[in-house]
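Table S2 (text version). Query chain:
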Amino acid sequence: MTPARGDVAVVIPARDESERISATVRAAAALPGVDLVLVVDDGSRDQTRSLAQRAGAAVISHPRPRGKGAAMETGAEAVRLLDGEQGREVPRHLLFLDADLGDTARHAGPLIEPVRRGEADMTVAVFTSTVKLGGHGLVVGLSGAGIQRATGRRPAQPLNGQRCLTRAAFEAARPIAAGFGAETALTIDLLRKGMRVTEVEVPLAHRATGKDWRAQLHRARQFADVGRALAPRLIPGAAPRRRDQLS
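Corresponding structure-token output:
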């Protein structure tokens, strides 16, 4: 049952997503129990910020790109501060959605329910859509194999960024890994701490992945970020480090 007062904040990391951000924000705002949609504009060069604001989102901007992991931390911290200002005894749950979901974001509700009912500390989406997920097969394979080696579990879609977490789970996973390694690290860190991670099938869909040089560069960055996130988690005694701590 959804509380009368909203109990979910949606955090949307976004960079240069002017084509879809408005639809994503509006769909996210309509989800049951959502009373805050926060877009973290990660150094966009287009109209992402203004369009998100017009659609009804609160927006925080990074003056230069800092990566997805940093955007997630910025958004979650802003929600924490707002919860404190509003005197909430129970902090909002955090629903992370990608900016390019568009209207399909309206189907994200099932990710919230297991967390709200206390049945999961984090849910991870498994897309039922036939549209190809972002991430080259090599990147998905690296992430999945790394998670399996670290925890004994292999998620169906290890790179999926659509996740709902309790505040306690998010804090337990900090610092969030840099860039596109965030999701891989989140899964490993929470499972290792004995938290309940549940996969949920949802009919969400990304923009179709391209094959031009920009798409290939994106996949290369994904691969590098996932590798950086995995290395300290698979080497005994090594501590995770943020990208700004790497030489």
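Notes on Table S2: The helical segments are 21-29, 48-54, 68-85, 109-116, 137-151, 167-173, 182-192, 213-234. Residues 8-234 form a domain with the Spore Coat Polysaccharide Biosynthesis Protein SpsA; Chain A fold (CATH 3.90.550.10).
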